[in-house]
Write a structure and sequence with these properties.
The chain is of the alpha+beta class. Helices cover about 45% and strands about 15% of the residues.
């Protein structure tokens, strides 16, 4: 960008309005996160979930406020290009000592792209590349605390770490929990603790991470040139006292806490880039985009994801293709084989007997975005007006777009613009997975499929269409639901038994002899379209026969209506300290 010879005071004032709009957003965002500690201490689990839902809307509300202010005060849509370029330069100057410069740049982009045509979406006008470094931004208090075990025992240091979070509720048996924690560490090192180096220290992120009923402590032990990450979940017992539930030491298990199928964390951060940098040092396989998203900064996650995606396109040469598997009736899905995501857009005309429209489908996806996904629903990134290089699309995919979603595409000589799409992590469709796995794995995954449905039901989600093609298997072998066009709240469904036929002829006719309302669900029918494979049927009935009976669903509905928030653990039950003690007692 060329620096103009003179500066316009309008551009300076516009830059200040943009910074003020962002600062107001982050002030409200941070206040929401700060209340998580008191919600946890009060065991207000409904409040935790509501805070996460409410927070998602903050960003768009501040963007619209800022857009309206720029229109009202400056008639911004009538300004010439030079003033917008100057506004960006002034904006950069205002971020010199800012604590969240990368988020502010993204906010600038969000406002700008709502006001001007995409022909202006280049680095002269918006932040295609970051302008302000996020390295070494100081935070008060510091983003992490350091502890040095050299002069004290490791157990005493771990006790201090936990108590320094200052929860007002007492621990039930902290000494006992710490003994189990130390036992886990000894087991991890196979009884042979590494020799302490001169730089031995434990670094712990200053703020706890809150989600559902759990507070998480994240940190790492540094010893010599080696770093050992850890995570400690803290929960309430039935008496309202705190306890340590387990200790996670393997990076991949800690990474599961940041999975795309989980709800976002509530965590107070003055300098979010410092938290992302710390977490990446613990979890190098996680991208910045994933971490920003899971910290509740979805727009920054989207922005970072898009930059990474553009970089990938420059360093790859494969083509976008129609995604393998059974074609959906509502969504057109394509993918880039070298990139681990799928791109989904809503068709113009739905196939089959679908009773939904475009707005309904968008509302379903928004429901999932705001809901607790309990590790069983895939998160999505929603984009508008995304330009793809035309040369990277196969002829078959272009024809599919022209035929099924012409209103969603705009063809240029060198580009194809998709007006609205969702991007999800790519998984192996369950129906395809079942055709390729052995009998042992088939039993495991069918059992997990049933567990996924039960966990979704406990979280007030009825999938609607439970066909295997609507579920996927992650790289960790977990079954995830990802097709949302028929999703419903459990409490909006009416689970019924099929009434007896009035006579044998009616039963044999195949015609429905009873009235069916829109939200009526007959669990007895599930087996007809799910359990054609004899082995699948045998396994499903072994573990999940209750899913074929209305009583199961009605009981889950009642618990939801009673305000019960179920426990969902993002790690195996056998890793929980309570279960480890029980197993040890049985062994003894």
């Amino acid at each position: 960008m060329q620096i103009p010879e003179y500066y316009n005071p309008v551009a300076r004032d516009m830059a200040q309005v943009l910074v003020d709009g962002f600062d107001k957003h982050y002030r409200l965002f941070r206040a929401c996160n700060q209340q998580a500690k008191s919600l946890f201490e009060r065991a207000d689990w409904q409040g935790v979930q509501q805070a996460i839902r409410d927070r998602i809307q903050f960003y768009d509300e501040r963007v619209l406020e800022t857009v309206a202010r720029l229109h009202h005060e400056f008639h911004a849509d009538l300004l010439d290009d030079e003033i917008w370029q100057q506004a960006k330069l002034y904006f950069i100057g205002l971020l010199t000592n800012h604590k969240q410069p990368e988020l502010a740049e993204t906010f600038f982009n969000s406002v700008f792209t709502r006001m001007l045509h995409r022909d202006y979406f280049n680095n002269d006008f918006i932040f295609i590349r970051p302008a302000i470094s996020t390295e070494y931004i100081e935070s008060d208090p510091p983003s992490y605390r350091s502890y040095y075990p050299a002069s004290r025992s490791m157990r005493a240091v771990m006790r201090n770490i936990i108590l320094d979070f200052g929860w007002c509720r007492p621990f039930a048996h902290l000494r006992h929990d710490l003994a189990l924690l130390m036992r886990c560490i000894a087991t991890f090192f196979d009884g042979h603790w590494p020799a302490a180096e001169a730089n031995l220290q434990i670094q712990v992120l200053s703020s706890a991470f809150y989600r559902n009923k759990t507070a998480y402590i994240f940190g790492k032990v540094i010893n010599g040139g080696i770093s050992y990450p850890f995570a400690i979940p803290v929960l309430h017992d039935e008496a309202g006292r705190l306890y340590l539930d387990t200790l996670l030491l393997e990076p991949w298990r800690i990474g599961v806490l940041f999975s795309f199928s989980r709800a976002y964390f509530l965590v107070d951060m003055e300098v979010p880039s410092a938290y992302v940098q710390f977490l990446r040092s613990m979890l190098p396989s996680k991208t910045k985009a994933e971490l920003y998203t899971m910290l509740g900064l979805q727009k920054q996650g989207k922005n970072t994801f898009y930059r990474d995606f553009m970089q990938h396109l420059q360093h790859s040469n494969d083509q976008f293709i129609i995604a393998p598997g059974i074609r959906g009736l509502v969504m057109l899905v394509f993918t880039l084989p070298s990139y681990p995501y799928v791109f989904k857009l809503i068709k113009d005309v739905f196939g089959g007997p679908k009773e939904v429209d475009r707005d309904t489908v968008k509302r379903k996806y928004w429901l999932v975005k705001r809901h607790d996904r309990v590790g069983r629903m895939s998160d999505t990134l929603e984009f508008s007006n995304v330009a793809f290089p035309r040369s990277r699309f196969t002829a078959e995919l272009i024809e599919e777009l022209r035929t099924l979603a012409p209103s969603m595409m705009e063809e240029g000589e060198d580009s194809i613009v998709i007006r609205h799409l969702y991007i999800e992590r790519r998984m192996k469709p369950l129906n395809m997975y079942l055709m390729q796995c052995d009998d042992t794995e088939k039993e495991r995954v069918i059992r997990d499929y049933g567990l996924a449905i039960k966990e979704l039901a406990s979280a007030n989600i009825f999938p609607g269409d439970m066909l295997f093609k609507n579920f996927g298997v992650t790289r960790y072998g977990r079954v995830i639901f990802y097709d949302y066009d028929e999703i419903e709240y459990m409490t909006d469904c009416n689970f019924r038994s099929i009434p007896p036929a009035p006579n044998p002829e009616m039963e044999m006719s195949g015609e429905v002899w009873y009235p069916v309302a829109r939200n009526d669900v007959f669990p007895e029918e599930f087996g007809t379209f799910l359990l054609g494979d004899p082995q699948v049927r045998k396994t499903f009935l072994k573990y999940h026969r209750d899913l074929l009976e209305p009583r199961f669903w009605q009981q889950r509905q009642q618990r939801i209506r009673d305000g019960v928030i179920e426990d969902f653990y993002p790690y195996p039950e056998e890793m929980r300290f309570t279960n480890m003690c029980t197993a040890a007692q049985r062994k003894g």
